[in-house]
Structure formats: C-alpha cells, structure tokens
Amino acid sequence: TGNQHPVLGIEYQPGGSSLTEKYFNKMDLQVRYFMPKNSVAPLAFYFSGDLLSDYTNLELISTISTMETFQKIYRPEIYNANAAAGQCYQPNLNHQDHSLTKIVYDREERSQLAIEQGKFTEEHFIKPYKDILEKWSAHYAL
Questions:
Q1: Cβ atoms 133, 124 nearer than 8 A
Q2: How far apart are the first and last CA of the chain?
Q3: Which of 43, 80, 90, 92 could be cross-linked to 72 through a Cys-Cys bond (beta carbons 3.0 to 4.6 Å apart)?
Q4: What is the pLDDT of residues 47-93, one digit of tens each?
Q5: Which of 33, 35, 32, 31 is nearest to 9 (CA)?
Q6: Which helix (H) or strand (E) element contains residue 10?
Q7: Are 54 and 98 in contact (CB under 8 A)?
Q8: How crowded is residue 78: how many other Cβ atoms within 10 Å of its Cβ?
Q9: Would you report the helix, strand and coil content of the chain in percent, each value rounded to 5?
Q10: What torsion do the CA atoms of 90, 51, 73, 84 make, to the nearest 10 degrees?
C-alpha cells in the first residue's frame, strides 16, 4: 500500500477475503496485513477498534514476536523463507526455499488431535445440549 508503520512495518493489501478473514469478521474483528522489518512475509493482525492507535508499541512488538515464533514453526515454507516477500506477495506452502526449525511440528498428529477434540466436543457438549444450542444459535443465523 505504500503505508509504513514504525513497528508493524510495510502494509500489504490482500487481493480478496480469505475464509479466515470472514470467520473473524463475524466476531467483529478487522484485519490488516503488515510485514515488520527483517521479516520475510506479511503477518495478519486481527483486531477490534483502531490497530494503529489503540495498541502501544510494546503490545505490537510482543504480538509480532509471538506471531513470528509460532508461524516459523507452523508454516516454515512461508514465515521461515530464505528471501523476503516482494511488493506483490503470494504465499505458497510448496515453497522450497526455506529453512526448517529445530522444533518438530507434526501436522498429521495435529489433524488427528483435531478429530479427537471434535468427537469429544460432540459427545460431551453438542449432543447433551443440542436443544439449548439450537435455540441460542437461531438468534444469530444469517
């Protein structure tokens, strides 16, 4: 965008809305994309209010540190790339020019865990409280 923030870095404008953006938007959260100095890919900042004036520089710096650490482990193909994003950026999980972290993150194990958590939630929360949940959610149906 040409917009540059002293802490958040260069602002990027997405080409369209992602499913993640639409999901967080339903919770009244907005998103802006910035690539902090010395980063290799833009980060998505989901927030309420005004991102640039409602948060202190210390809050923004700590958020960036946490996000970058997690993203390098979770998506090294994007966030631990060996070259920084250019003016136009398209993330790609098949990107080969990246460095692996020394932390093992097992995506298959995470998927299996998600399935088990879903089954547990269905059995102990959704089924026993189905009627209450349906009445409650009817007020929020689109």
A1: no
A2: 33
A3: 80
A4: 999 999 999 999 999 999 988 888 877 777 766 776 777 777 676 66
A5: 35
A6: strand 9-12
A7: no
A8: 19
A9: 45, 15, 45
A10: 40
